[in-house]
Amino acid sequence: MNDKLKIGKYEFKSRLFVGTGKYSTFQVMKQALEASGTDCVTVAVRRVNLTDKSKESLLDYIDPKLYKILPNTAGCYTVDEAVRTARLAREVGLSEMIKLEVIGDEKTLYPDLSGLIEATKLLVKEGFTVLPYTSDDLVTALRLEDAGASCVMPLGAPIGSGLGIINTMNIQIIINRLKVPVIVDAGVGTASDVAVAMELGADGVLLNTGIALAKDPINMARAMKLAMESGRLAYLSGRIPKKYFVAEPSSPTEGKIK
Amino acid sequence: MQIFVNGKAKEISEGIIVKTFIDTLRLNSKAIAVELNLKVVPKKEYDTKRLKEGDKIEIISFVGGG
């Protein structure tokens, strides 16, 4: 069945996007990415280390034939910083997509929603395919869609927290109302969190820490892949409704011995 | 002349072009991007853009991130 994910003009075979941060080694990262089945990886944009060039480079371990690269504006607290970072990321020449982060709080890394909307408008105008990391607020999601974002990426829980989806109702409301794809981004702790997101109707999930800091990242990546497949299939298969306070027997009520 | 690269002062030759500067740093131009005085330098201008006294340069590449 053709169940590819489309974001803007880009098509993805996998609905799982995986980050490249926090792995113990590049080799572990490479194997985990492969095990996850993803075809889209996020990267951060940082100053080149000009004094120590003996270090290996991330791009040596990411085959651009296998993975689409999604640069982020992590660590940007202002519209200006985020826009500058996005422009630099694009000029590297490997991607016109940008995972837009405008952070509002250093402790929780919660997004600055008004800054995010403003930066989205600016970058859309400059031809970027913008994937904004946002909160689970419906109105902001709608404003981002109006501003031309190619999808919205509401957080399930704070980055790296492993808490899963704290507010499933808000995520469902966003999924219900938006026309662009909804990718749950941040907070995934284990495989069932991915399955839950997909069962709610999310179009995809983005995660990093849940794999990178697992005791066995490669097998965890495998688990995430399976959870993605299972959650998506469950969603497409049309679950039974939830019935509160009453039961409905699975065995026939007629023909019982007396 | 003195310029600033990634926040640090550096002495370089007068009138050096961006391409040469990147080469002296032994960087792969395919894996980086350059910002000069808060404006991105398009890669096609690396051969022609000349650096001057007091220029502030940011050279970035991709690193691991979520």
Strand content of chain B: 35-45%
CATH topology group of chain B: Ubiquitin-like (UB roll)
Can you tell me the CATH architecture of chain B?
Roll
Q: Give, in spatial order, the strands making up the sheet with the most strands of chain A.
A: 5-4-3-10-9
Structural class of chain B: mainly beta
Structural class of chain A: alpha/beta
Fourth CATH level, the homologous superfamily of chain A: Aldolase class I
Strand order of the largest sheet of chain B: 2-1-5-3-4
Question: How many domain modules of chain B?
Answer: 1
Please outline the helices and strands:
The complex is a heterodimer of chains A (258) and B (66).
Chain A: E1 5-7, E2 10-12, E3 16-19, H1 26-36, E4 40-47, E5 68-71, H2 79-92, E6 97-100, H3 113-125, E7 129-134, H4 138-146, E8 153-154, H5 168-177, E9 183-185, H6 191-199, E10 204-207, H7 209-212, H8 217-236
Parallel strand pairs in A: 3-4, 3-10, 4-5, 6-7, 7-8, 9-10
Antiparallel strand pairs in A: 1-2
Helix pairs in contact in A: 1-8, 2-3, 6-8
Chain B: E1 2-5, E2 8-11, H1 18-24, E3 32-36, E4 39-40, E5 56-64
Parallel strand pairs in B: 1-5
Antiparallel strand pairs in B: 1-2, 3-4, 3-5
Task: Describe this structure in a few short sentences.
The complex is a heterodimer of chains A (258) and B (66). With 258 residues, chain A is an alpha/beta fold. Chain A has 8 helices and 10 strands.
Word description of this protein:
The complex is a heterodimer of chains A (258) and B (66). Chain A is of the alpha/beta class and 258 residues long. Chain A has a single domain (5-236), classed as Aldolase class I (TIM Barrel, Alpha-Beta Barrel), CATH 3.20.20. Chain A is 35% helix and 16% strand. In chain A, strand 1 and strand 2 form a beta hairpin. The radius of gyration of chain A is 20 Å and the shape is globular. Chain B is mainly beta. In chain B, 11% of the residues lie in helices and 36% in strands. In chain B, strand 1 and strand 2 form a beta hairpin. The longest helix of chain B has 7 residues, at 18-24. Chain B starts with a strand and ends with a strand.
